[in-house]
Amino acid sequence: MVDSRRMSEITETDVLQALRGVQDPELHKDFVELDMIQNVAVAGGVVSLSVILTTPACPLKDEIGDSIRGALTERIPGVNAVNIDFGSRVMPFRGIGDKMAIE
Asked: pTM for this structure?
């Protein structure tokens, strides 16, 4: 938890620290470890950030957003709103290694 004496000085580091341990429900690793949290900005009590998903049509987007909002408002005093911009990073298909295509 962030020291309440500093709540007017919330930093990106504070946000990332608060999100450590908040796990992606499918990958079972935390969002910070997976480098899915980007573009963190804090203005007053409002935290804005981007969450980069593995697919643009992620069916768990609402659950992910709720987990992130809950962690930030519970763990950092002074956070009263969280704006999340969802993006995606789809990995290109790289083939099947040394396997030949079926004719």
From this structure: 0.78
